[in-house]
Amino acid sequence: MSLRLGDTAPDFEAETTQGTIHFHKWLGDSWGVLFSHPKDFTPVCTTELGYMAKLKPEFDRRGVKIIGLSVDPLDSHSKWAHDIEETQGTAPNYPMIADSDFKVSKLYDMLPAVVSGDPAKRTPADNQTVRNVFVVGPDKKLKLILVYPMTSGFYVDEVLRVIVSLPLTAKHEVATPVNWKQGEDVIIAGSVSDEDARKVYPEGWKAPKPYLRIVPQPQ
């Protein structure tokens, strides 16, 4: 199964460091970020998990739930958490899925369906495709999919930036331009006619081109 933006995020039941979860039920009406790692005790992932823990209050403030995944059992996750706290200053303060049966990795098309066996005998290189970030909306649809190589850590601040952008653009029928940050001007969505746009923006907009209608960020 190949996942695309707009698809329903596959539901699953899994053991995590914070107990058993049913993914859709766990999300509830929240936005969610599921980020995955090929193996415990891998260097790049250690930095990612620590930084996500530091930024968790920012995600909480925006009503976003975060959850990690690694293809290893729970006891391994617990031992890794000590290393993460020691080296990064903050241990994971969100659930980490123990995907030792590869179920979620297969469900999200990160590993082939034929993968099986003892996860302890697999190397990070065997699982290198388990390097993904999925942003899921309250409607359980996939809103963002990022895939990273093992040697490049994902940019957590970018994930947070998109998390700010997505609800804004959905609610107000706008789009955010390149390198947009909170509080900056936005673009009226192309699906909105000039007639309808005038009802929302009676003072008008800047339009260097007819299709590029720039307005202040709606509040």
Explained architecture:
The protein contains six helices and eleven strands. With 219 residues, the protein is α+β, with helices and mostly antiparallel strands. It has two domains: 142 residues, Glutaredoxin (3-Layer(aba) Sandwich); 43 residues, no CATH class. α2 packs across α3. The radius of gyration is 20 Å and the shape is elongated. The protein starts with 12 loop residues before the first strand and ends with a strand.
| Secondary-structure class | alpha+beta
Q: What Rg do the Cα atoms give?
A: 20 Å
Query: Number of helix segments?
Result: 6
CATH architecture assignment of the largest domain: 3-Layer(aba) Sandwich
Strand order of the largest sheet: 5-4-3-6-7
CATH superfamily membership of the largest domain: Glutaredoxin
Mean pLDDT: 96
Measure the end-to-end span. Answer: 39 Å
Count structural domains.
2
Shape verdict: elongated
Question: Which class of the largest domain in CATH terms?
Answer: Alpha Beta
Low-pLDDT sequence parts = none
Q: Report the biggest beta sheet as strand number plus sense, adding barrel if it closes.
A: 5 strands, mixed
Oligomeric organization of the protein chains? single chain
